[in-house]
Amino acid sequence: KPAKRLSDSNTHEGAMAGETSALEEAFRKFAIHGDTRATGKEMHGKNWSKLCKDCHIIDGKNVTTTDVDIVFSKIKGKSVRTITFEQFKEALQELSKKRFKGKSDEEALQEMHKLIEGKGPDLTGVTKTVASPTVSRLTDTSKFTGSHKERFDASGKGKGKAGREDLVDNSGYVSGYKHAGTYDHKVQGNK
């Protein structure tokens, strides 16, 4: 019988792990949003606020942005600016009591998880590039003239440092001579 009890508890833990994986995935998506160096293991306060707004945890009545910031400050350590996934779950538990007042703690937490699971950061309001004729005319490298034309190759790709600086030609030819290296070809062609 003890072996059976062990297997029962393992399947229950496996089911819980399946539930938290969607929650953990949402945590990771919000944790790396807007930060190229983020690993997804810790979340900043800015991303915590974004998660609460995008997942509709903030409803304006029971939970406000101030409540979200207070819970974040309470959960994180004194000298730390981020929260881990475990601290994130604590913060959710704290907010679920305020958000779903009429429900038991367990039901409120389940409702909170449903709001977050499978979600990612919204990209509404993010600035998009505008394709206007003026901008495209000004950035078309094939129409550049003078010294600016020298900064790009025929395909329009920048030459980098070679396009920005006058590099000294130490080949022995006069500067501006276009047929460098053709002497042997001309001499042998005549013979």
From TrEMBL:
Pfam families: p25-alpha (PF05517). GO terms for cellular component: cytoplasm; microtubule. The keyword Coiled coil does not apply. SUPFAM superfamilies: EF-hand (SSF47473). It is found in: Cytoplasm. One of its GO terms (biological process) is microtubule bundle formation. Keywords: Cytoplasm. Residues 139-170 are annotated as: Disordered. Residues 147-167 have a biased composition (Basic and acidic residues). One of its GO terms (molecular function) is tubulin binding. Belongs to the TPPP family. This is TPPP protein. It comes from Anthoscopus minutus. The gene is Tppp.
